[in-house]
Amino acid sequence: PAKRLIDYRPYPFTLETVRLDFTLDPDATEVRAGLSFSPRQEAAALELDGEDLELVSVAVDGRALTPDDYELTKTGLTIPAHVLPPQAFTLETVTRIAPSKNTALEGLYMSKGMYCTQCEAEGFRKITFYPDRPDVMARFHVTITGDQPVLLANGDLVESREGYAEWVDPWPKPAYLFALVAGDLRAHSGTFTTMSGRKVATNIWVRPGDEDRCDFALQALHRSMRWDEEAYGREYDLDIFNIVAVDDFNMGAMENKGLNIFNSKWVLASPETATDADYERIEGIIAHEYFHNWTGNRITCRDWFQLCLKEGLTVYRDQQFTGDMRGHATKRIDDVLSLRGRQFREDRGPLSHPPRPDHYREINNFYTATVYEKGAEIVGMLHRLLGADGYRAALDLYFERHDGQACTIEDWLKVFEDSSGRDLSQFKRWYTDAGTPTLRVRDSFKDGTYTLEFEQETRPTPGQPEKLPRHIPIEVGLLSENGDEVVPSTVLEMTEAKQSFTFDGLATRPVPSILRDFSAPVRLERDADTSELAFLLTHDRDPFNRWEAGRALAQKVLIGRVQGQATDASFSDAIGALLRDETADPAFRALCLNLPSEDSIAQALYDQGETPDPAAIYAAREGLARDLASAHKTLLAEIFTNTEATGPYSSDPEQAGPRALRLAVLRLLNRIDGGARAGALFASAENMTESLGALAALVQTGQDAAAMAEFRDRWQGDRLVMDKWFLVQLANCPPEMALERAEALTGDPLFTWKTPNRFRALMAGLSGNHAGFHRADGASYRFYADWLLKLDPVNPQVAARMSTAFETWTRYDEGRREKMRSELERIAAQPGLSRDLSEMTQRLLG
Ligand code: ARG
Ligand code: ZN
Questions:
Q1: Rounded to an integer, what distance in angstroms lies between the CA atom of residue 404 and that of residue 388?
Q2: Ligand 1 centre from 202 Cα, in Å?
Q3: Which candidate, 606, 688, 682, 558, places its Cα nearest to that of 213?
Q4: Number of continuous H segments (helices) and E segments (strands) in the chain
Q5: Omega cis (within 30) before 98
């Protein structure tokens, strides 16, 4: 049965304090809980969530209850009102759990001998009986007894001796922010002094051997703490901030109060083992989890329907941070690439849902690109509509008004309305409506007046057949034919289904630059001819739209090739101009050289009402890359030779940019030099960025056996690098080799499939090989579905998440559709399927 937003009722009790005493044991951890409740309603029963718990005893105000006094089910414990005192009371329970048997990695579990927790969204109910909902906020006092050298929980440490630690968190919090870690851990430590002078001890905790890969994360934490003070006026509020790296983790990281827990992949970094992109991601995720301290923890969500309240805002904040650290233009392009690749893709298929959904069966299935990335885009639109000062004023009011509360999207929008005086009722549709609007634009010029005529339309999505127009901020600038900006950037506000905007007093017909900085998450349709796109790629002031013009050009050419048309020279000429433009930022040039992915070409064809043919798309893209390489081989070879980063390794843009450009160039040359340069770079590489870049290029030629074996020999003891090894050889190999390789790799002793990172590396490698996954005989689909079925009983969350490889099934031809559909039906019919995967397959089947 689905949970529904409209069924929200406040909890009938307040919970003041929580006392938790843990006695750790892999098979029988004892949890003593003391919860002090006060009724807010008369004669309410006390309903507590609880799953996979062994109940040892229950008492109310010291009086032991007997089984007649309560009802115990598979999902919880209910104590009827007549058993409870009419005023405040304390409930004491003793439960036992078995962390070593917890393979779902939700609740308290073990990873390589270390105890750790993951409670968001509903994992706390696997630790003890509790009102496991975010609007119940309480102060936690936690003791841990166990023979591990390090015992951690939320808040400040008040007492510790061998085998015992006591932690008090002064800030009321929902149970999903609870965390406990115990193990043989080493700290890489620092201190941070906040703007008001509080001295905070900062620690990155890792398993022995990883200590020397923590400093980047620690410095990133300090940069995040400073940035949140400067950009949002937000200061840290405890004397200690701990981050723990865990190898077995279902997602990226988790913002538990004062004790963030991370997938070790997003903490550990050294030049030999992490790529430039990893460094940037680590910095961004450290920031994201830290920023949650205010947007998520101090102000949390009333219920899980409001998830994007904390996630959309926090993603937006981490995007701003990374832009400040590493450059806004390239960050914006990266973010839009990922938005289109994941969120637009999700929005165009059977899993499409609003950023604020109104029903779900399993909330873990809603930690999606729509909630996170589209949620961030919505915050970005509010920023653009109100301006920097208006946005800051609204955020100040948000923190002032709602600190300590569990809030809704309505509360959030009200803050913007109250601080700006604007009516945002139409804008709210961005939260409640699913689907990506298509924005069509036509232009005309007459007597010095230029007119832009827009039309918006959103296709029906599951459960939402009819769509009303949205409030869309469209940032526009106009250029003269010699490239001058005749009308500087301005934000047009579209609110109607059809709307025109005029610009007067122009001497000649301008060239429009529309949707600058990607000012709204829409699909822009414009019949721009190739010369206009080439012009914008050279002249636009807005770096995003400059890149976007190149992208549109590449897309046009690729689609033409898929349809068997001859390719005109405009794209190649524009690339030539870009290669000669030494004033342009290297990272930006690299982004312009990267061709659209096969998946995005498939999506573009589907959007145009055509059926994508994966093999034809692969061939078109390879062909274009080869043609570009041949056309510019001298120029490319020159750049490859002359663009070397110098000095000791740093992941800063000054070095990462040139490395990215060099690798983008390598990927093109690789198509015509038989892998010669890639082989040489692989042999001489001094950091993982180059080593993996070279390896990926070799894989693309299919001539990678020796390099693969060498890489494996060298790195077999390093789990994070081995994840890359599994992924790179599948995602980049010629499509006809992909499935065979994947099958062989599942027999590799290093394929420890119960470890989420390893499972994801192999499966995402295969599904990321577009033509290999979508081979016409459906064999990859079958292989993939078999593994989802195998993982589901062990780790339903990861199995459900990985099922999104099938979310595009409606795009393809009848044969592929039927094959994917029948795999989904086979999964759906599996007896004992988890709620997670069962909801996903049902939604996927529509
Ligand atoms: N709140 C975490 C973050 O975004 C992610 C938690 C994901 N939880 C889940 N059940 N999928 O930083
Ligand atoms: Zn988050």
A1: 25
A2: 22
A3: 688
A4: 28, 31
A5: no
| Ligand 2 geometric centre to CA of 120 (Å) | 10
Q: Identify the residue whose C-alpha is closest to ligand 1 atom 10.
A: 364
Q: Is 285 in the pocket of ligand 1 (CB under 6 A)?
A: no
E-state strands within 527-638 = none
Atom index in ligand 1 nearest the CA of residue 121 equals 10
Rounded-to-integer distance, Cα 663 and Cα 670, Å: 10
Question: From the CB of 121, is ligand 1 less than 6 Å away?
Answer: yes
Report CA torsion sign: 216, 217, 218, 223: positive
Which of these is catalytic: 289, 311, 362, 377?
289
pLDDT at res. 646: 82
> Which of 118, 120, 366 is the best mutation target for the ligand 1 pocket, counting ligand atoms within 8 Å of the beta carbon and taking the most?
120
Please provide the DSSP assignment of 196-262 as one string: T--EEEEEEEE-TT-GGG-HHHHHHHHHHHHHHHHHH-----SSEEEEEEESS-SSSEE--TTEEEE
Residue nearest to atom 2 of ligand 1 (CA): 254
Instruction: Return all residues near 650 (Cβ < 8 A) that are at least 6 apart.
Output: none
Distances (CA, A) of 565 to 524, 556, 600, 654, 671: 24, 11, 19, 40, 21
Q: Taking the CA atoms of 260, 262, 266 and 268 in sequence, report the sign of the dihedral they define.
A: positive
Query: How many A from CA of 367 to the centre of ligand 1?
Result: 7
pLDDT of amino acid 1: 84
Ligand lying nearest the CA atom of residue 121: 1
pLDDT at 568: 85
User: Which ligand approaches the C-alpha of residue 317 most closely?
Assistant: 2
Residue 748, number of CB atoms within 10 A of its CB = 15
Instruction: Name which residue sits closest to atom 12 of ligand 1, judged by CA.
Output: 254
| C-alpha dihedral (346, 352, 354, 355), degrees to nearest 10 | -20
User: 698 C-alpha to center of ligand 2: Å?
Assistant: 36
Q: Residue whose CA is closest, atom 1 of ligand 1?
A: 254
How many whole angstroms from 470 Cα to the centroid of ligand 2?
26
The 10 Å Cβ neighbour count of residue 34 is: 15
pLDDT along the chain (846 residues), means of 10: 96 98 99 98 97 98 98 98 98 98 98 98 99 98 98 98 98 99 98 98 98 98 99 98 98 98 98 98 99 99 99 99 98 98 98 98 98 99 98 98 99 98 98 98 98 98 97 98 96 98 97 98 94 93 97 96 92 94 95 98 97 98 98 98 90 97 98 98 97 98 97 98 98 98 98 98 98 99 99 98 98 98 98 98 97
Distance 800 CA to ligand 1 centre (A): 15
- Short-list 492, 451, 485, 487, CA closest to 471: 492
How far apart are the C-alpha atoms of 668 and 677, rounded to whole Å? 11
User: Of the residues 116, 124, 177, 254, which should be mutated to test ligand 1's pocket, given the most ligand atoms within 8 Å of the CB?
Assistant: 254
122 touches ligand 1 (CB under 6 Å): no
- Partners of 63 in beta bridges: 60
Q: Given the cut 0.85, state whether the ipTM is greater than it.
A: yes
Active-site residue, 289 included: yes
**Residue 274 region by backbone torsions, left for phi larger than 0, else alpha for psi between -120 and 50, else beta:** beta
Residue 836 Cβ inside 6 Å of ligand 1? The answer reads: no
Task: Please answer whether residues 246 and 114 qualify as being in contact, where contact means their C-beta atoms are separated by less than 8 angstroms.
Answer: yes
> Which helix (H) or strand (E) is 35 found in, with range?
strand 29-39
Tell me, what's the pLDDT at 841?
98
Which residues fall inside 5 Å of ion ligand 2, going by CB? 311, 314
CB 46 within 8 A of CB 341: no
CB 674 within 8 A of CB 690: no
